[in-house]
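Sequence of Ataxin-10 domain-containing protein (Leishmania infantum).
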Amino acid sequence: MAVASKGRIADVNQEELTKIGPKIDDVLSICLASFDSLRDMAFKFQYEQAAEKAAYQSGETKPDPMTQLMHVLQRMVDLTLGTAKAVYDQTLLEWRRRKGEGDADSPASQFASSQSMTSPEVLRNSSVEDFAAGSLAWIERGSHLSLLSLEVLSSVLLAHHYLRKDLQKYMLDFNALDYLEKVFSMERDHELCYFPEGFKTECMRLIANLTHNNVDVNAALAERDTFLFNILSATQIDEENPGMVEWAEFAIRNICESSAAAREKIRKLAPQGVTDQSRGMLAGRCSYSFSSSGKVQLHTQKPPLD
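Predicted 3D structure, token representation.
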């Protein structure tokens, strides 16, 4: 993707770049210690970084700070979004296999019950045998990589306000929406077995940043009914994903702000009922009904007469 040499490098968000650096280092280290497609993506990132640096040093290419920054951020997107997709696909295959076998005592079950996070050093130093598909080390590696990758992707979009729209488009072209839609459509057991607490919160944070002030992204999202409705459903409190409600509200605001199609679809939605959690909270306090426009109406219950 070509980038016009505009914007000032001095306006870069140093706080976000400071966050990105160590996380990219961890992603690279863990991927390079892998023996699958993750290592190939890490090698590709390193090769492209080195090739561009060599071109600048040789005088073959005249360095432009903004173009250089854009290229680095694009490579980070390639690495982290590619990693997140690969991990999801791997866990989906393993989850389906274990579900078919009915393996209740699998490492995935152990991870779901503990939700422990292994340090990057331990993950890097584990043996090849430790990383056999479905092993606890394999699951924790994927869990850690997924969270790191999502955090980097959100920070990339905040790295420079001038580059944000180009980076949003870059992620859109790299099928970021496909990945995020899969995440919010996966079964609960798959999520709990293979991904850490707060995983969907980070996914929703990425959606909120991806949809910010971008007509193209929101138009593409509005065409995905299931995905749009999953984002709306994320406004329910989820103990496994603290903070997701707030990010979902930001995302919905962003989507509706620039997509008339999304606004119309949401306007036409009809209530399907009240969740069990809400029903339990209302029990004994008040009853409820739905108005003709679909709004919830609460009715205070009068105390019984003595």
